[in-house]
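Aryl-alcohol dehydrogenase structure dump, as promised
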Amino acid sequence: MKIQAAVLRESSRPLVIEELDLDEVRSDEVRVKIAFCGVCHTDVACRDAVIPLKLPLVLGHEGAGIVEEVGAGVTRVRPGDHVLLSFASCGFCHSCRTAHPAYCEHFNPMNFGGARSDGTTTLSGPKGAVNSLFFGQSAFATHAIVPQSSLIRVDPDLPLDVLAPLGCGVQTGADAVLNSLQARPGDSIAVFGVGAVGMSAIMAARASGCSKIVAIDRVRQRLELALELGATHVVDAKETSDLIDEVRSISNSGVTHVVDSTGVGDVVAQALQCLSLRGTCALVGMYPPGHRLPIDTRFIVLNGINVKGIVEGDSQPSHFIPRLIELYQAGNFPLDRLITPFGFADVNAAMDASAACAVLKPVLWFN
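structure tokens r here:
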């Protein structure tokens, strides 16, 4: 069938909306009519070749829409279902079988390889094949073919435009706190960088009952919103001469947990020194290839510090996204406060706004 998709043909160049051909669904695949799609910094990183991928390519990995057709082997959804789209996983490797699909042994080829396992793409155009299945979806398009492992069925009465970002950025920050760090009432936490991922961590920390929640950023407006969404304290990194001392004074002897969403090595080095004895630093940022951390190994050893890399919140989307939806419905996870809508025709403006940190979470509308 003919669809419209935003195609990246050259790195660091604008996406071009083109008419493409969408392949037929196969046994374990689903065709989804995309209604909304969040824009994530990972989309920007791939556009700008910070994460180099094969081109041409259709990006987009926080899709939400309605199932139109299912393959013969699909059991999780049926036509008419409202669904959120998340990352793809094989379902059979050790990580998948032990509820850690974000560490699927086949994660890279399934989410960044641009094609099915047999090398075919789901998209093509007059100039030939177009790389697809970005994070199992390529949702900067009016329709997408998606493996059923990427789908989460949701109540049709829920707002898909609000829920779309749960597929990546929001679950990365929130589930890092709820699932991987397993923050508990009375814990303290500092979040470095309060964009969409960091703000999701702030909201999750409040939902977890953390007693002290410190937001650190260089943008005053974001810090003000963080206070409204759950932070008990904020630190303006531009205005603070000794950030480590400031955070440790707030938390008395250091915080239980730190979440770094900045992807900046010098910030991580500071974050580690804000931890209490046996505290844990969660690294969830976009760290470029070859990135090295300037850390004091002796400090880590003597203080029992844990440094934990976390992909996608170490989430099992089919289980944890419904949990986040329940928090949202209860008024404990006001995700809608993060969102700025853009029309699909304005996809490049949305990408640029995300790259410039002018908005927290752009969401594309396809209707």
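The first helix runs from residue 41 to 47.
lmk if u need the other ones
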